[in-house]
# Entry
Amino acid sequence: MSDVAAIDGLVDRYKELKKEIGKVIVGQEKVVDEIIISVFSGGHALLIGVPGLAKTLMVNTIATVLGLDFKRIQFTPDLMPSDILGSEILDENRNFKFLKGPIFSNIILADEINRTPPKTQAALLEAMQEKSVTIAGNHYELSKPYFVLATQNPIEQEGTYPLPEAQLDRFMFAINLDYPTHEEEVAIVKATTTDHKVTLRSLFSAKEIEDYQQLLRRIPVADNVIEYTVSLVGKTRPNADNIPQVVKDYIDWGAGPRASQNLILAAKTHAALQGKYSPDIENVKAVATGILRHRLIKNYKADAEGLTIEKIIAQLL
# Structure
């Protein structure tokens, strides 16, 4: 099958995928879109939202419909690296045997990742980057496709270990999850307070998702789109030349080259899901907020004036 025909086929399957997810998840269209773009681009995502917004249900539903294995790890202050990676034990014949931890799955939900100490965070983030782990000198490849969705509660910061900037940079998207609208909440209450069970179909297989990830990487990108993307990321750096006044005044630290790479990959996927064979500047703009949100560090002046990162990104766009 040609790449053009494969992209046409993906558009239809994406519509079917959204319809199937919609049986369980009411609203949250943009959140679902950004998670799906992350998966097909081969990236990871950080979900930021208060408790009770069905983050776990959303990830579980998407994993089921994509036909992928799913494991949830609840991050707590006493969680050790071996609790997520696995450990070696002595079997009945006095031989060492490796027991795999929950990280050996296609989709990992790292619930409240900022509640666990840096040592355990680092173990997960190394696995995210390398797609493999080394335990007791032995190297183990992780399942493919491999995707980490971490959650953070933005309100309660007591007793937490904020992710360092270098580790935040490993996430392709930072996705803000808001409260549902009045109509959506009415629909949620109606759907979840009866004994009606929804049966979900698996529409993909792990192999198909890997094939689509490779297909999306093969999509050509015009030079002017790459130039625009690199210029956009360059504008976020306070020490660069010809930067906008808003960045000079309110940003302490800008985005690195990984942001440019992720913008192009996500723009390719965003374009393909709309039936386009090459991304344009509009596709870059459509994914920019989620990709830049966690990579810009604003200063105390921005906080004092109530200026959010989203408003600053909107001005750059």
Remarks:
- The mean pLDDT is 85.
- The chain has two domains: 3-208, 219-316.
- Residues 3-21 form the longest helix (19 residues).
